[in-house]
Structure formats: structure tokens, C-alpha cells
Amino acid sequence: MPQPSQRYNRAQLAQEANLRAQVPTGALTFAWRGRAGTRTLSLSFALSGTLLVTALALSLWGVAVTSYLAFKDDIIGGVMSRQAALQHGYEDRIRELRGQVDRMTSRQMVDKTELERRVDQVARRQALLETRQAIVSSLKESAGAPPAPTRIGAMVPGRSAAASPAPRPAVAGDTVRLTPPVERQSRLESRVVVAAIPQPTFALAAEPSHLDVVARVERSLDRVEQSQHGLLQGLETRTERRAKRIRAMLAELGLAETRLAPAARGGSTAGTGGPLIPLSAPMPDASPFEKQVFRLQTVIRDHDRLNRLVASIPIARPHSGELELSSGFGARLDPFLRTWAMHSGIDFRGATGEPVFASGSGRVSHAASLGGYGLLVEIDHGNGISTRYAHLSRIEVKEGDLVGVGQRVGRVGSTGRSTGPHLHYETRVNGEAVDPMRFVRAGVRLASAD
Fold this sequence. Notes:
Blueprint: H1 4-22, E1 27-34, E2 37-44, H2 45-144, H3 182-189, H4 211-253, H5 288-311, E3 325-327, E4 330-333, E5 340-343, E6 346-349, E7 355-357, E8 362-369, E9 375-382, E10 385-395, E11 402-403, E12 408-412, E13 422-429, E14 432-434, H6 436-449
Antiparallel strand pairs: 1-2, 3-6, 4-5, 6-13, 7-12, 8-9, 8-11, 9-10, 10-12, 10-13, 13-14
Helix pairs in contact: 2-4, 2-5, 4-5, 4-6
């Protein structure tokens, strides 16, 4: 007889076999025992996967929510810290940019102020340079042109090249030509007087956009100032050189500069006058330009004084064209008596009607016929010096007239004791006849030097 436990096992196994027979295939089946017996629940694989995914999603959501709730303060604090760092960075950058803007504004204000200052300085400096240029031009006009007495080799005013007489053939005997050699003449003619430096003009913009523009203008003004300094230096050097040559000429003629006084000047000399306002020496703190101008004015005054002295000394040419001597100064055979006699002057060969010019400024002391001189013009140059122009065919001045250097006083002729048309020219010092060639040669050398 079977035991109870065995019966129970058989029943249980039969029930389990029955349950297995009831489990559908292709599904997930759950079985559990209860008081009411064994129960089963079958779920398809699709539904099981859906429930599994849903469970996982809910688990992850739960973990996320739990983590958020647990670390909420730390996360919010980190986010706020990052936002605060970004805000501080932006504020620092804005503060730095604002500082840069302020510095740029300040620099622009400083540049604007500096620009206005430099533009005003350039304008005042340009006005000063224009004033200085006017002074330089006036000084150059005073010292640049050689005086009339020293231009002995030049053509006489009022005569054109076409009106100059053609060169006459060479004469024999004691004829002397007072013309420089061809080589010397070519060198003299090749000399070119330095012209005045043109005044540059500057057009400044009303509001320059850059300081470099002002800097370029300042450099241009520096060049103008240097040009003015160079021109003044050149004028001073040339004027001193001319004055030195005049003093050398006076020493050669044996005339004491301190004992000479300028004679009255005539001709086309314009009237001048005005109150005497002596020039005062520049102050110790004066600019180099003012000191240089004062030195040049002193040199020019000395040069003008010497020119006035030279104007009264008969060193200019009394006759146009080549000076051909037909008879020199001193002992010679008298052309009429053929005996030795004293010739108190020199004879220039010429044609009747050719002009005769004053060799120095002075006053006409005689303008009429005088014995063997024929028609004679005598000019008193002051300081005991006088000149005579004899055998004229016509006299074009009258006694008492003031004449200037190069002024026409008569025409070549053959009046008086003469064998043919020529100009008898005398130079007298304190009433005694001296060799006029000393003065003429000195004038030629002075003109050649100029």
C-alpha cells in the first residue's frame, strides 16, 4: 500500500504536468502557488519587453530624480558660480574697454591740443619767415647789384648793342687797348649772379588730420630758414669782398680813405631823405637772424660809403667802345711843332659825334671853349680831383650841373689845337695833372673782379 507522501507527490506531479500543458508557447509565463492552488500568468515577449523597458526608464528616472534631489544644491551652486565667473569676466572686459576708450579719448584730446599748438606755432613761424624774407630781399637789393662806378666794363646806359660803334682797325705807335683778353672776358661773361631764392608758399589745411602734415610743413620752414641764413651769409661775404677790393683800389691810387668825402651826386639819382634813426646793436638775447642782419647792415653801410667815395673818383670809361690811345701821358713830340713837350692827358681815338661820358660823379665847373682845349668840359669830383674832356664838337651840360657816372657830357670832336677827331682826357689831383691811366686801369681791374 502506497504511503501518503507518495500519493501527494503523484498528484503534485500530475498537476504540474497539467499546468505545463496549459502554458502557451512563445510567451513568458509566471506560475505561483497559493491556497487556491497553482496559478499562472503568461505575457507575450513584446509585452514583456515593453514592461521591461518601462521599468528601466522608470528606474533611470528615479535614479535621476534621486540624484537631482540629493545634489540639487551643488548643481545650482556650480551653475551660479559659472554664471558669476562669466559675469565678472564680462565686467572686467567692459571695464578694460572703457579704460581703453578713455585713454584714446584723452590721447585724442592731447593730440588735438598739440596739433592746435603746433599749427599756431607754424602759422606764427611762417609769418615771421615771410617778414624775414622781406628783410632779406631788401638787403639783397641793397647789396646785390654792383654800383655804377664799378661797372666800368659794362655798356653805357642808354646805348644798345646795335648803336655801339664798330671796332676800328688797330693803330700803330703808342696805341693801347684797355680791354681784357678774350679768355678773361669769357670768364667774366660766364659769371652768373645768384638770383634770389623764391619764397615758398604753404597751404595749411584748416583742420589737419595728422600731425605728420604739420611735421612736413615744419621741415619745409626749416629749409626756408636755412636758405635765408645761407643767402645772408653769401651777401655778407660778397659785400665784404667788394669793400676790400675798393679799399685796395684806393690804396693803389694813393688816396687816403679817411680823408675822402663823397661828392655831390647828379644824373638820374633819385631824391632820398627822412629823419636820422641810428641802428642800435642787437640785444644779447637776440636771435641769430637778428644778429646776422645787423652784421650785414653794418657791412652794407660801409660798402655804400665806399661806393659813394668811388662814385666821386674818375675810374669809369669816358668813351664808349674800345679805348684806343693815340697819345699817352707825359713827354711826347708835339704834333704841330714836332718838338718834345709835356702832354697833360691822354688822347682816345674816336669819330666825330661819338658820345663822351663822365668818368665820375661831380659838379661841372667849366663848360665852354678854353684856348687850345677847344670846347672843354671840366668836372670837379671833390677831394681835389677833377677831370677834363677837351676838343669836343658839342657840349651837352652847363656849368654848375651835377652829373653822375656814365652821364653824357658832350660829343667827340676836333676843336682847338687838334689834328683830328679824338677825345683829350685829363685827370687832375689838387690842380696837378696825373696819369689818367692809373685811374682807368684801377677801374678796369675793379670791374673785372666784380
